[in-house]
Amino acid sequence: MWFKGSLLVAKWTVGNSSLSGVASGVFKPELTGSLTFMNVSLRYNGTYTVEMNHIGEEKVSATFYLFVYDIIMNVSLHTDPGDAVEGQVSFTLYYSTMQGEAKEVRWFFNGLQLRNGSHYSISGKNLTINQPSRNHTGRYTVLLTNPFSSETQHWNITVLYGPDMPVLKVSPTKAVFVSGESLFLSCQAEGEPPPSATWFFNGESIATSSTGTVSLTNVKTSQSGVYTCVMINTRTKAKLQRNVTIIVYESPSGEPLCSVQAVNGSAALQFLCLWPGGAPEAQVSFPGLSVNASGYGNYSMTINDIQSLNGREIICKAEHPLIQTQCSVIPRGPVDFLPVILISMSQDEQTLVVIHCSAKATPQALVHWIKDGNHLQTGPKYQISTNTTQLFIYDFNVTTDLDTYTCTAINPLGNETVDTTLLGPQISNSSVFRSNNRTEVTLTWDVPLTSVITGFDIQMKGPELSSPSQPKLSIASDFRTIQSKPASARATTVSGLDPECTYYIRIIPKAGRTAGEQSEQHRIGPAAGLSGAAIAGMAAGIPCALLVLLIVLAFIYCGRRDRVPRYPVPRAVEKSTLNPHRLLRARLKPPPEYRHQQPERSAHLPTVNSSVRMATTV
């Protein structure tokens, strides 16, 4: 009896030609008890058992496994899941065939046969990669064999991973950037596929190149902050980000400005140090006033003990990460100053006089104005400027307003008083210069500093001035105004003079409609004869000069006649009175030069002539 598993497939008696229970067309029993398979198919794979019984004897049996193989064809590989991702639990690669079964299955990775272990598990048609990593990326091969055929199939597996921790670079490499500079940010990270980079600043994305770089040109302080690079794996959607801080500094504008002002009713001084702007703000301090106190940008310090500060330089130290500098201020009381007078005239010919009284003082001095012992206040006649340094006198009248005005400059460190006496219009000095061709003269003049003048009239007496196109007219016998000059003028030129005629020129200063004291008259023309007064003076002087000359000559003559030539006579030296030591120390007078002695008569003549010349000179 033949069984497939427990199913009886054939039964017969050995030696008996009749067969029963045999599947015809598939099995062919043999008289010896063997069983022949015909047209076998894969479904006949299985375990077969043959039992043989002999009457009166013990039953015997034998079992075997029948393997039915087909030609292996159309082998294909598959994955589960579709992508191998680094860090997942497992990844399975399995095969399938359209025909044929393998008796032996072998797996290879990059040409090396794989075996069961911690990284790989082989079971049936499956190859399982435990906890795949990027190191498992490569070529996988399956080799299927049976007694009648063999087949090979390959599969390239790429394990997806990343992005790894991004690598950020700032170029140029600097801790701090200055406003106006340019810089580049780059972001790179390992990954499969290569991750894409996106930069963010203050939560908003900024333009990023395909290579993950950002270009920042002409940076501003507003661009200081944290920049974030986000790396994304487009296949796995994995993200990783990293931050970099960019610091942009900007220097404060200009230079620090130091000043001082009076506070607390001019009883104290407040020192100020101003250096605005910049990022970050500059730190400022007055080390000479306080060692520890400081501030930022706009800093002030009040000092009550001020007397020791007069004339002392106070330095403000200004420090910024990009620059260190300083400024200073010297507090001082008012010192000597000279008032300045400004005069102007309105269209209705009203005169305005401004007295500018600005003392050199730090802080600026407050000026009090006094006239005739009374403090002046702003009103219709007088107005005082906001900073008190100017006094405006409206509708100035030469008759009533010429007076002494007192300005007292006061600040916490002292005071100074100056009197200004306003003078009427007058000329202090004048000169005239004639050109080479004698047809033109230049007239110059000066005025007192406190003289109130609104203009000048240039007056001339003499022939009318002529020009090439206009002939000379008649001679004027009185002064006439030929030019009018403003108050600022100090010189003028008069042309058209006749070289053969005589002219007289003078300057008349004016204050409004009031004419002041005229200047001296300047005569212009050819040389004139002596005046009557000059002739009378010479007539009186000549007899006196002759008398003096005669007296001198008589004195010289008498002195020469009494003089007798005398020559030195040597005296004998007494030996008893000589001391050799005294002789060595004594100073000997040189002998006279006799050859220079002239006869007495010849010596008198030059003396008389010299005396004559002297008298003539006198």
UniProtKB/TrEMBL annotation:
Compositional bias ranges of the Basic and acidic residues kind: 590-603
Ig-like domain ranges (all copies): 166-245, 339-423
Annotated SMART domains: IG, IGc2
Biased composition range(s): Polar residues: 607-618
Region listing for Disordered, in residue ranges: 590-618
Membrane-spanning ranges: 533-557
InterPro entries: FN3_dom (IPR003961), FN3_sf (IPR036116), Ig-like_dom (IPR007110), Ig-like_dom_sf (IPR036179), Ig-like_fold (IPR013783), Ig_I-set (IPR013098), Ig_sub (IPR003599), Ig_sub2 (IPR003598)
Tagged with keyword Lipid biosynthesis: no
Any one Pfam family match given in the protein's UniProt record, by short name: Ig_3
Keyword Membrane tagged: yes
PROSITE patterns: FN3, IG_LIKE
Source domain of life: Eukaryota
Keywords: Disulfide bond, Glycoprotein, Immunoglobulin domain, Membrane, Repeat, Signal, Transmembrane, Transmembrane helix
Domain Fibronectin type-III as annotated: residue spans: 426-529
Protein name: V-set and immunoglobulin domain containing 10 like
Organism: Cyprinus carpio
